[in-house]
């Protein structure tokens, strides 16, 4: 059984870190090392992790000054000794067979496949599942699909060969440095998809913690981060217009919809203008807006003239739905 390095970045995660670690310690796959990177916590996260480490020698703690989730993950990858890296956010949970099924899939797929991934449940504060992601059951060369659909959808649902993670340079801190953090995982997964094949493990093995009251604000930050991510990818790889036009348009329109409904017309106008200023020089993004989206924006501006005509040639819709589902991730049968 190859060694798997579980890498957990943690910042003020005292409320959830013990539950998260327990979901790792209960894995059916036991050949693990568990690396918790404390990113400058001030709430006693380190103390809680060290108490668990005294009972299980597989747990290690790395302490660093607050540097953002990307650099925290990279510190864990650097310290890792495993053949595979399994990232896990400090408030997410795993099904007991999560690591086992991912390793089996990667071992069966061969060396050209560097990433195994699974769909996920959304879980609440109490760890109860209340919705689930779409199952994108795609394997092989998935870059174009990943570009628009985000097959993994979170930071805790993939296992990657350590050699591949190192080759792509780990997680980029660029978004954090621009104040556009949120899509570090998505960017890392896209970098991997450009060079390696993926394999899907079509079971819901991850509990991705979301608090319903915060979903609108989280979505605004995430979409804003996605725009910067696409701008970076266009600049780095010269992606053709057709590769990003639909995705950039949907993201911009989604942002407009969310802020209009959550902040009111005047505040929405100010926020949209901020995006315009931030993206003013990202012409390859602005040029990618589809005629369909610009037509929809025109109709929206006629309904809400306070948003401002200055936005008309810049911005873009649609937010996915959820459906109810209840249960605890550990007890869901495969």
UniProtKB/TrEMBL annotation:
The keyword Ligase does not apply. Pfam families: Glycos_transf_2 (PF00535). Keywords: Transferase. The lineage of its organism: Bacteria, Pseudomonadati, Verrucomicrobiota, Verrucomicrobiia, Verrucomicrobiales. One of its GO terms (molecular function) is transferase activity. The keyword Transferase applies. This is Glycosyltransferase involved in cell wall biosynthesis. Residues 5-156 form the Glycosyltransferase 2-like domain. It comes from the Bacteria.
């Amino acid at each position: 059984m190859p060694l798997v390095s579980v890498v957990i970045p943690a910042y003020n995660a005292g409320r959830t870190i013990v539950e998260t670690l327990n979901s790792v310690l209960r894995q059916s796959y036991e050949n693990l090392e568990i690396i918790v990177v404390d990113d400058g916590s001030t709430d006693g996260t380190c103390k809680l992790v060290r108490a668990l480490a005294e009972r299980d020698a597989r747990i290690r703690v790395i302490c660093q000054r607050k540097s953002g989730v990307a650099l925290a993950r990279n510190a864990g990858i650097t310290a890792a000794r495993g053949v595979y890296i399994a990232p896990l956010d400090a408030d997410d949970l795993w099904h007991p067979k999560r690591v086992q099924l991912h390793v089996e899939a990667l071992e069966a797929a061969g060396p050209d496949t560097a990433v195994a991934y699974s769909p996920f449940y959304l879980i609440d504060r109490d760890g109860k599942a209340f919705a689930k992601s779409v199952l994108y059951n795609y394997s092989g060369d998935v870059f174009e699909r990943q570009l628009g659909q985000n097959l993994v959808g979170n930071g805790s649902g993939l296992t990657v060969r350590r050699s591949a993670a190192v080759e792509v340079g780990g997680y980029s801190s660029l978004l954090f440095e621009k104040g556009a953090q949120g899509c570090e995982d998505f960017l890392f997964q896209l970098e991997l998809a450009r060079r390696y094949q993926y394999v899907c493990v079509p079971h819901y093995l991850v509990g991705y913690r979301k608090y319903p009251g915060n979903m609108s604000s989280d979505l605004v930050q995430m979409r804003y981060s996605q725009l910067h991510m696409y701008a970076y990818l266009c600049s780095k790889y010269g992606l053709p217009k057709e590769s990003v036009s639909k995705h950039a348009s949907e993201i911009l329109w989604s942002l407009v919809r969310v802020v209009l409904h959550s902040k009111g017309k005047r505040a929405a106008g100010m926020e949209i203008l901020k995006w315009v200023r931030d993206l003013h020089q990202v012409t390859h993004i602005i040029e990618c807006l589809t005629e369909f989206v610009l037509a929809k924006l025109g109709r929206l501006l006629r309904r809400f003239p306070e948003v401002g005509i200055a936005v008309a040639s810049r911005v873009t819709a649609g937010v996915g739905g959820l459906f109810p589902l209840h249960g605890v991730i550990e007890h869901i049968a495969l």
